[in-house]
Amino acid sequence: MAVSFAGLWEALVAVGRDPVTGGYRRFSWTAQDTACRAWFTRAAAERGLRTGTDRNGNLWAWWDVPGAPGGQAVVTGSHLDSVPDGGAFDGPLGVVSAFAAIDLLRERGLVPVRPLAVAAFTEEEGGRFGVACLGSRLLAGTIEPDAARALTDSGGISLAEAMTAAGHDPAGIGPDTELLGRVSAYVELHIEQGRWLVSMDAAVGIGQRIWPHGRWRLVFTGQPDHAGTATLAGRHDPMLPFAATVLAARQAAVQEGALATVGKVAAEPGAVNAVSARVSAWLDARGPDEQALAAVVEQVLAAARSAAAAQGVGLEVVQESATPAVDFDLGLRSRLATALGDRGIPAPLAATGAGHDAGVLAARVPTAMLFVRNPTGVSHSPAEHAERADCEAGVVALAAVLEDLACR
Ligand code: GLV
Ligand code: MN
Ligand code: MN
Questions:
Q1: Cβ < 6 Å from ligand 1: which residues?
Q2: Which numbered ligand comes closest to the C-alpha of 94?
Q3: Which residues sit opposite 322 in a β-bridge?
Q4: Which of 281, 221, 209 is nearest to 249 (CA)?
Q5: Helix 388-406 vs helix 5-12: crossing angle, to nearest 10
Q6: SS3 355
Q7: Residues 245, 303: contact at Cβ < 8 Å?
Q8: What is the reported pLDDT for 1?
């Protein structure tokens, strides 16, 4: 039994990789994104799958039931975009594995009795426009199309402009009940972003739940001035409340058993010898439950407000995205466990603090996830890794699940 993973992987692996850092910069609606899309279309065409881009820019490749197109589909896939300097596996592993799993089913002479589709959702990381899982959120109708069209990247280009420049009409974005109505289940395979599977000595695991999480943008506005002449007492320096906020985030997360990160900051105008006019900071907060998450955010924002007031600095807070806790569909999860158990594939249950399109789509259709062991546990970094044998074990596991869901 040959797993066709390597060829698919090698054809994609160089796209968007930075030669200096070794990290990936695959941002939606850029030239790198176009190259990823071309790879997807080629992989689908090589397999005789029917391809299409939905109104929201998500890619689909359909293995129709011979002689009977239509019907409720089983969908698998993930995303091809990355965070700035992300790893090779977060996203692409699920899409490559989806095509490789189809190859495996075909090699065994299996034919779906319900349509089987591979999907690649756009802007999952929110790496360009700030809102994570943007493509699946639009599809599911959990973000307003007007609000999405108006999102801007760091250069001030709106989503609508970027889509137009890439040849995709932004007028049609928004909920697509017809397409979602065709989906009976979505199963996303993903690299694990932690070391749970290492500790369990298992190559693959089954997703149990996703922590609730969200993103907040805090803009501190002060009084720009000369670093060598403005008196300390007379300053309104936005950097000070920003710094207090970062420390408060750490403290609140420790206190609540949660996670809080300020991973992106922009100081304007960015002169070494000037007090900043404005500091924009992005808070990413996640908790084991909604109360813990709310408590963290409340404490961080209270600290930010009081530190800003103490310095005579203005503060604007915008919640950019929110994703409630997701418990993956119990029925689908047990089917995955049975399909894998029947083939002697051990697959422990794994909870995660990371967000996924499967988490967003869970509000509309039954979803489940498979995780593949990550020996470093590191993700959103060039150090992210999965051994080839584990990737292939993931393909075998995904094929077993798809066989059970689509071929019986
Ligand atoms: C996506 O990977 C996220 O968890 O932000
Ligand atoms: Mn990610
Ligand atoms: Mn991902």
A1: 125, 132, 354-355
A2: 3
A3: 214
A4: 281
A5: 110
A6: coil
A7: yes
A8: 53
Q: How far apart are the first and last CA of the chain?
A: 21
The CA distance from 363 to 392, in Å, is 30
Ligand 3 centroid from CA 83, angstroms: 9
Ligand 1 center from residue 173 Cα (angstroms)? 22
Q: Which residues pair with 284 in a beta bridge?
A: 215, 261
- pLDDT tens digits along 204-228: 999 999 999 999 999 999 999 999 9
Q: Name the residue of 137, 356, 378, 381 whose CB sits within 8 Å of the most ligand 1 atoms, as the mutation to test its pocket.
A: 356
Ligand 1: which of 125, 286, 378, 384 to mutate, judged by most atoms within 8 Å of the beta carbon?
Answer: 125
Q: Give the distance from CA 300 to its chain's centroid.
A: 24
pLDDT at residue number 71 = 84
- Name the residue with higher pLDDT: 66 or 95: 95
What number of CA atoms fall less than 13 Å from residue 49's CA on the CB side? 27
Token pair of 94 as six digits: 């699920």
Q: How many CB atoms lie within 10 A of CB 343?
A: 15
Residue 119: left if φ>0, alpha if ψ -120 to 50, beta else—which one?
beta
Nearest C-alpha neighbor of 356 from the set 125, 183, 151: 125
CB 224 within 8 A of CB 277: yes
The partner residues of 214 in beta bridges, in order of sequence, read: 285, 322
Q: What is the mean pLDDT of the chain?
A: 97
CA of 232 to the centre of ligand 3 (A): 45
In the structure encoding, which two tokens stand for residue 278, read together?
């404005």
Q: Tens of pLDDT along 157-192?
A: 999 999 999 999 999 999 999 999 999 999 999 999
Residues 6+ away with beta carbon under 8 Å from 366: 184, 185, 186, 329, 331, 332
Helix-helix angle 239-256:290-310, to 10 degrees: 150
What is the structure's pLDDT at 70? 77
Dist CA 116 CA 111 (whole Å)? 10
Taking a C-beta distance cutoff of 8 angstroms, is the pair 371, 348 a contact?
no
Q: Which residue in 396, 394, 24 sits closest to 192, CA to CA? A: 394
Distance 78 CA to ligand 3 centre (A): 7
pLDDT at 315 over 90: yes
